Every structure is written in structure tokens, then in C-alpha cells.
Amino acid sequence: MDAKMQGMLLNFVLASFVLLSCIRGGTAGITSSFIRSEFPAVDIPLDHEAFSVPKGYNAPQQVHITQGDYEGKAVIISWVTPDEPGSSTVHYGTAENKFRASAKGTVSNYTFYLYKSGYIHHCLVEGLEHSTKYYYKIGSGDSSREFWFETPPPVGPDTPYKFGIIGDLGQTFNSLQTLDHYIESGAKAVLYLGDLSYADRYTKNDIGLRWDTWGRFVEKSTAYQPWMWSVGNHEIEYLPHLGEVDPFKNYLHRYTTPHLASKSSTPLWYAIRRASAHIIVLNSYSPYVKYTPQYIWLKEELTKVDREKTPWLIVLMHVPLYNSNSAHFMEGESMRSVFESWFIDYKVDVIFAGHVHAYERSYRVSNIDYNITSGSRYPKPDKSAPLYITVGDGGNQEGLASKFLDPQPEYSAFRESSYGHSTLEIKNRTHAIYHWNRNDEGKKVPVEAFVLHNQYWGSNRRRRKLKHFLLTVAEEVADF
Ligand SMILES: *[C@@H]1O[C@H](CO)[C@@H](O)[C@H](O)[C@H]1NC(C)=O
Ligand SMILES: *[C@@H]1O[C@H](CO)[C@@H](O)[C@H](O)[C@H]1NC(C)=O
Ligand SMILES: *[C@@H]1O[C@H](CO)[C@@H](O)[C@H](O)[C@H]1NC(C)=O
Ligand SMILES: [Fe+2]
After folding, report:
1. Between vectors from CA 394 to CA 391 and to CA 396, what angle results, nearest 5°?
2. Fewest C-beta in 10 Å: which of 218, 321, 383, 422?
3. Helix or strand or coil: residue 326?
4. Across the strands, what pairs with 381?
5. For residue range 438-476, what is the model confidence (pLDDT) as tens digits?
6. Which residues form the signal peptide (predicted)?
């Protein structure tokens, strides 16, 4: 992007911010008048090129990577070989076609009803350099395949980094637009908000098959940059009539997270640090009330957040805590009553959720005074509260959630029932630029764009401290 474009974009962003600041002063939020014209919410047919199988005997497919440690110096590379186990070794290096190093992974297979999975490989590649492009090769002989990824910069308070946010993607033509628009955004990693393939909308062996097609569908992004996974209700797949009663079975075999690095006992919730962000991933569908593992883990993890190193504190979950759509209304209430006061005490910047197939952003509100006898039933404006943003609009086969509560509740700042994705571009410890992009009949349209001020570094006391820090830096530069 040239300087002029950048200037124009900044003006646009600032103008939007002014607009939003005005809106925030008023009472009611906005319900967008945009109506997405009907577009079939049907899955892409099996023979479509979006699901194409790579050529060659036993060629690796469904390639995806995720962060492999707490700090971003490792990745986990996963793929499936269809015909035989083959090799679980990843060859990698910093120059194309020169794979100086290798790492050995694991292979496993499983059944789901009568479906037999391919051979699923997971390989941890660790000890990487920061801010480096790595090339990697998997598979063997003529069927081997090569990809690349970039490691993030070291964890640090003013490290710029651009995240994408996608939820409830599925595998329709709308999903394909979301994915293509996301790839155009230039973001470096995805924070995924649960509900991946929607394979559980099928039955019997088609469930496993639709997990495979989804893995091939997203490969054009997932093979090249890490997607940080969280689970939704469509991953549970508790299907006793098929004899399948282990929750998250397909998901857990295929997708993996660096949960041990944050001392979590399960891949279903975990935390990572990446650039200037500390990202906490929760599971709406495992117990979280007091005394449960998830509760105990989160309590401990929050104490490890160091805003001097990672100013940005981001939480991901599937079920939104603030939602004014009639779809899934109040489903987040139980988790809200358990965790909301922590999110406020720790000044979480933003909580992203999916589940509701629409877009919604809250004001900074809290409802922590509520208890069953207090009578204070309504959320109140609260400067220490996170923003709650629902990005469940990836485009799956269930279609859009178009019935919003009327009138719009006071906690809801903006809502629109259409498909899209978000990006969060962190500039430094105080500023990040947030975008929500709608898929408008194939075009990518930025609808919301504003500057997000950091909740920790934005307070007056710390602003003064930061000013002092900047003066010190200026003096040091002058001395030099
Ligand atoms: C895994 O694959 C082997 C063949 O390589 C097969 O014998 C075995 O039954 C498979 N296991 C499952 C659980 O499908
Ligand atoms: C319930 O809320 C009220 C008002 O916030 C508070 O005074 C009271 O102590 C709370 N009750 C309990 C048992 O925490
Ligand atoms: C942070 O970034 C914003 C937007 O680019 C800029 O205006 C501000 O001066 C930066 N602050 C620091 C401390 O670098
Ligand atoms: Fe969901």
C-alpha cells in the first residue's frame, strides 16, 4: 500500500472512530439496514474444486498448522494421508528447496460409525527463529508437497501484528467468500471461534467425509498460517444412535492446540502469547463453574498475563456473553455469571465469540452487580469491561440469524445479519485497528472500522507513565 492510500485509510479509520465515539455518547445502538439478498446456504458439492484431492499416491491433504508453544517459536503441522500411514516427518528450512532440518511426528487413525479415517499426522516443529519464513515439505516421492509459514516476532509490548477472526465457517459458497476475503486481508494468523465443518449436519459415514472436505477446503489458508482453534457445539457430535458418544471425537483426532504449554489438561481450552497479545481460549461446552478444571485453569492463567509484555488481552469462546439476537439468546448467561467479574478485574480488551450467525458488537458494559436478590438486573456502562464481539457470520449451511430483539437492548452497539469476518491490527501497546468486513454478494465491504484503545495502557495513570517512557526514549535517542 502506498503512502497516499495509507493516509486515506487512516483518515477513514479516524472518521469512523469519531462517528463511533458520538454513537457511544448516545443511548441506542444501531441495527444495520443492510439486508443480504437470499443466497443458498447449501454446502459446496463434493466434486467441486474447493475440495480437490492433491494428485499422487498417498499425497498429504488437509494440511493445517497452529502455534506449537506459549511464545510462538514452534508450530504444529498436521495433515492426512489417505492410502497408508506413510511418513510423519516434516522437512523444513529457511530457504526454498533446501530443507536442512527435520522433525518427526505421530500418526493415528480412528473410526466414526462405519467411516474409517485416513492417517492423521501431527508434527511439532520447535526451536524456530522469530520473524522468519520457513519452507516445509511433507509426504514422499512424487506425492510430496511443499508449503511455507512465517513465525511471529518475539513477544513484546509494541510489536505490531494483524489477526483475523472467523467463526462458524462451514463449507458453503458463502464460506468460500469469507475465506477468500480473509486471505485478501493480509492478516497473519486466525483466531477461530468454533463450529468448523458442520459435518454433524450429515449422518453416518458422510460425517467423516465432510470433515475431510472441510480440511481440504481451508487448506489454502491453514497450510500457510496458524489458525488458533476453539470448539463449538458442532464439534460435540454426541450421536448415541450411531454408537458415537465421545464428545469432540472427530475434532480431537484432527485438530490440535498447544495446551500443555499453558498447563491446560486438555486441548479444548488453552492460552498462547503471540507478538503483543495474550490469547485465552475457552470452551463453552466443558464445565466451567467453580471447582471444575476449566475454572481452576482460567483463574491461574489470568495471573500469568503480563500487560507490560503483552498489552493486549483477548479471550475467545463460542457462545457470546452479550447477544441480542433471538438465536441463542441467553445461552451465554451461565458462563457470564461465573467469569464476567474476572474479565473486568483483569481488564480484558475484547472477547470474541461465534455461534450466532450474524455480527454484533457491544458497548463496554457489565452486569456484575446482579445476583438473585440484588434486584440490579440490567447491564451498566463500565469502562473496565471488555468489548463483546460476535463474529458467527462465516457462512455455514444453517444460514443467517436474522431475528434481532426489538427494541435493540442498550448493551448492543451495532448488529447486522450478514456474512463476513473481522481483523484486529495491533499497532502498539495503546492502539489497534479493528475491522469487520461484510461479504456483499461476492464483494468485500468494510462496514465497521475503528481504533480500539488498550484497556490497560489506556487508563490515565498508565498514559502518564507511557508519556514518561516516551520522553525517556526520546532523551536516550537524543543522547545517542
Ligand atoms: C488403522 O489402520 C490400520 C491399517 O493401517 C487398520 O488395520 C486399523 O484397523 C485402523 N484402525 C482404526 C481404528 O481404524
Ligand atoms: C447481592 O447484590 C447486592 C447488590 O450488589 C449486594 O449488596 C449483596 O451483598 C449481594 N449478595 C451476596 C450474597 O453477595
Ligand atoms: C501507537 O499507534 C498509534 C496509531 O498508529 C499512534 O498514533 C500512536 O502515537 C502510537 N503510540 C506509541 C506509543 O507509539
Ligand atoms: Fe454454534
Report:
1. 130
2. 383
3. coil
4. 365
5. 998 889 999 999 999 999 998 766 776 776 666 655 544
6. 1-28
* Closest residue by Cα to residue 388 from 438, 333, 425: 333
Give catalytic status of residue 328 as yes or no.
yes
Say yes or no: CB of residue 380 within 6 Å of ligand 2.
no
Closest ligand by atom to 249 CA: 1
Ligand 3 lined by 428 (C-beta under 6 Å): yes
Give the distance (Å) from ligand 1 centre to CA of residue 256: 21
Phi, psi of 181 (to 5 degrees): -65, -40
Q: Please tell me the distance between residue 56's alpha carbon and the centre of ligand 1 in angstroms.
A: 22
Q: Report whether CATH 3.60.21.10 matches the domain 3-56+159-244+282-466.
A: yes
Question: What pLDDT is stored for residue 28 in this prediction?
Answer: 74
CB 226 within 8 A of CB 75: yes
> In angstroms, what CA-CA distances link 309 with 273, 289, 304, 402, 471?
9, 30, 11, 41, 20
Largest CA distance in the chain: 74
Catalytic residue among 91, 318, 328, 435: 328
Torsions phi, psi of 391, nearest 5?
Answer: -125, 55
